[in-house]
Each structure stands twice: as structure tokens, then as C-alpha cells.
């Protein structure tokens, strides 16, 4: 049985979405980010603190002290995008790579998303979540400028392809959609990449995404 450690309000959402799409049985063990406890005035190391990213027991699973982590038959894996590529290969089927070429393209897009898009996109999500003041507006504008080039690269790809890889919905779409989602609150940016916007909305119309999202919305911020 697969165990996923994390929260819905974290990058674990991409793994939960993938697990639901793939129909793999799993258990979700809640592990909260230490900084979220500190924001509420709770010491993450207090004996009665909830299980969190700084709990010694959690650091035995990952010295990086971040969520998510997945455990499957003795395999401990961190890095949410790598976890999804593993899950898809384990389950097989249409979401998984059909051959080494597709696998390479799925890795290419996961790495591009993580290195070129995720950082500034997260800045946008955080700025909107805080309530946009003057400083937040500056962060959003700088991040949007940084994102224009990689999102235009996706736009060019989607002009010639219906999906990220293989002309069908795969784990590469889940990985990229969950990264681009962080930029989604900034409508003026998304309006400049209409194909990316439509592809993202199509990905998010899938029942497995909607199920994950409804539960995430119910989790305290
Ligand atoms: N590259 C990692 C990033 C993991 C990460 O930074 N997770 C955040 C939550 S989304 C975290 O656990 N932060 C914990 C902390 O800073 O205490 C991945 O994709 O899994």
C-alpha cells in the first residue's frame, strides 16, 4: 500500500490528483508545514505539536524536511514530480509513458516546469493569498514578467500538440498543470497565453482534479 505524507494545501495535491486518476490505493498521512504552525504561534518542536515537517520522526523519512514524501514497499521518494512519474509507471495505462522517448519528454517537461515556471508562479499564488498590497503588486508584476517567456514556450507547444506528451492526457499534464496553476490567479498573464489557459482548464475539468480540489478547499488555510 502506498503512503503519501503531506497536506492538501501543498504540492501533495499533484500526487493526490495522480493517485486518483491512476486508481492506486493509498493512505494520506497528514504532515503540516512547520512554517504554517509558526504562523499560528505554535512551536513545531513542542511535544503536543501536530506531526510536521520538522518533527524528528518525519526528518527520518526525509532530511529535506519538506512535503510530500511517498513510501511504497520500502521505497522512500521525495520530490512531487518524481513521485508522479514513478506512480504513473507503476500503474501503467494511458497516463504512463509508452516508451523511453515519451518518458524522456515527460522528464523534460517536469524539469522545465520546476526550473522555469514554479518559482515565479508560486510567488504569484502567495502574493494573491496574502491580499494584494503595493509590495504584493510589485512581486506579481516581476513574477509575471519572468513567466512570460516560459509560458509562451508552452503556448507554442500547445499550438502544435493537444497535450504535453503523446497526444493524450498523461502524468506530464498533471505535473505541468499543477505548476502553472500557481500563476492562474493572475488573469492578465493568463490572458496572454490563451492556449495554456484552455489546456489548464481542460485538465482541471477532470473528475479526479475536482475531487482533489474540493477536499483541498475544505482544509484550513
Ligand atoms: N521540490 C519539492 C518542494 C517541496 C516543498 O518545498 N514543499 C513545501 C510545501 S509545498 C514544504 O514542505 N515546506 C516545508 C517547510 O518549509 O517547512 C517538491 O516538489 O516536492
TrEMBL record:
It comes from the Bacteria. Residues 1-95 form the GST N-terminal domain. It holds the Pfam family GST_N_3. InterPro entries: Glutathione-S-Trfase_C-like, Glutathione-S-Trfase_C_sf, Glutathione_S-Trfase, Glutathione_S-Trfase_N, GST_C, Thioredoxin-like_sf. Residues 99-221 form the GST C-terminal domain. This is Glutathione S-transferase family protein. It comes from Sedimentimonas flavescens. The lineage of its organism: Bacteria, Pseudomonadati, Pseudomonadota, Alphaproteobacteria, Rhodobacterales.
